[in-house]
Amino acid sequence: METKRDFLKKLGLLTVGGMVGGSFASAKAAGSVSPLSAPKKKIGLQIYSLGRELTEDVPNGLKKIADIGYSTIELAGYRERKMGTIEVADYRKMAEDAGIKITGSHVNPPVRKYTKENMGEIADFWKIAVEDHVKFGTTSLVQPGMPQIESHDDAAIVCEVFNKAGEIAKAANIRWGYHNHSGEFQRVVKEEDKGKRANPWMPVGDVIYDLLLNGTDPSLVFFEMDVYWTVMGANDPLEYFEKYAGRFPILHIKDRSILGNSGMMNFENIFKHAYKNGLDEFYVELENIREGVTQFEGVKQCFDYLNNAPFVK
What is this structure's pTM? Predict the structure, then answer.
């Protein structure tokens, strides 16, 4: 199966606090409202969700996204100063013609191991990316790929690089953030603690995600939590909302497949606490579709689920 990293090159496990309780009941309640009678809410889509169904015909694909009801999109596939093979200005015009706004973008620098020696190279990359994303009209720019972190020193350098990227973006009035998968919930252990016996109740080492949150400047770096991957990393989104209040203004809303079709995600609880934490935007991301429908059909079902959900503003 094609991974997100492969796709971009080409163009644990239950939430604490009751996972099963909200999903099926909420889906049923949400489904009791007719899609035709529900007012359209501001719901965004990460276009990675559509893969080739979008890239094979971008102008018509963007119109389909808008027709479904999505208000905004988050890009994926920016490279070499283009979106796939399309020039920045042309892609923005296609979106505007479709009646949809580009508000965010996922972009990875060309290196995974950050060092003191290549910090300047990475900063130069972000300067160019920010320049192009000003032209896209985005308000947020997010790195979705985890750098190589095997020690506390690695984490410290990554935080320094992230702060610099945030500084570059902030100067252009763009928010810079980081998107997690499940790997960020692994731990790194200090030399003096290596060899100590670990157990589930007293794990050894520090969680990488926490090191990134603690080591970055909140005025420069936000975190776009992917709630599904947080759960898959055996962690509770709600605990992070409470522990790091204000750091998650944007979320990725994701389920095992189409939203609300599993018992894994308590979206009602997640949205309730996310709004209290300062949520101002979110994007649907659909991966690993299992229902035997097209990607466009899947993202429409995701939109309808959220648009009809009483817990989504």
Answer: 0.87
